[in-house]
């Protein structure tokens, strides 16, 4: 546990000291976003555009996270156990890419439809297809590393918007 805490502290301090626009807390055994990190990053949160919280044990992401990182462009949450996202995620007007693959999502907030998301990475069982149809700016659905069946691909290809669909067979 102490090693995991030290790892998070090192990565957060590097982000602050080096004035990075990226915060990578992947593989840190996090079950939630640490409150102490909010305090440390307070002065630089507006400069952070990419946050990676992949491959942790997070069950959710709080509204506080999305209200703190308002300039977020890319968010990687794959490989957690997230069951839902707060509605405030729809207020991230700069967010263009979100990776939610390999989580426990059953629903996306309605507000996600209103942002200019152009890349969504999900497990196909995570989100109902009608949610994806309601995302007018969505240009790419990445289904890599997911079990695909022909019914899913056919359903996506019937959407009114044109998607680039990336699968395990793509290079």
From TrEMBL:
Any matching Pfam family: LRR_8
Gene3D superfamilies given in the database record: Ribonuclease Inhibitor
Keywords of the record: Leucine-rich repeat, Repeat
Family matches, as SUPFAM superfamilies: L domain-like
Entry keyword annotation includes Amino-acid biosynthesis: no
InterPro entries the UniProt entry points to: Leu-rich_rpt, LRR_dom_sf, LRR_domain-containing
GO cellular component: cytoplasm
PANTHER family per UniProt: PTHR48051, RAS SUPPRESSOR PROTEIN 1 (PTHR48051:SF1)
Protein name: Leucine-rich repeat-containing protein 20
Native species: Oncorhynchus tshawytscha (Chinook salmon)
């Amino acid at each position: 546990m102490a090693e995991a805490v030290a790892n998070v502290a090192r990565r957060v301090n590097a982000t602050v000291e080096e004035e990075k626009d990226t915060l990578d807390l992947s593989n840190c055994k996090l079950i939630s976003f640490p409150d102490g990190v909010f305090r440390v990053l307070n002065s630089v949160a507006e400069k952070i555009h990419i946050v990676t919280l992949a491959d942790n044990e997070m069950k959710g992401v709080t509204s506080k996270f999305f209200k703190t990182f308002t300039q977020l462009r890319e968010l990687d949450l794959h490989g957690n156990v997230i069951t839902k996202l707060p509605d405030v995620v729809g207020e991230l007007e700069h967010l263009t890419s979100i990776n939610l693959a390999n989580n426990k999502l059953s629903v996306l907030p309605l507000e996600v439809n209103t942002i200019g998301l152009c890349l969504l990475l999900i497990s196909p069982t995570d989100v109902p297809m009608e949610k994806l149809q309601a995302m007018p700016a969505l240009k790419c659905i990445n289904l890599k590393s997911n079990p695909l069946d022909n019914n899913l691909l056919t359903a996506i290809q019937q959407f009114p918007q044109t998607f680039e669909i990336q699968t395990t067979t793509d290079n």
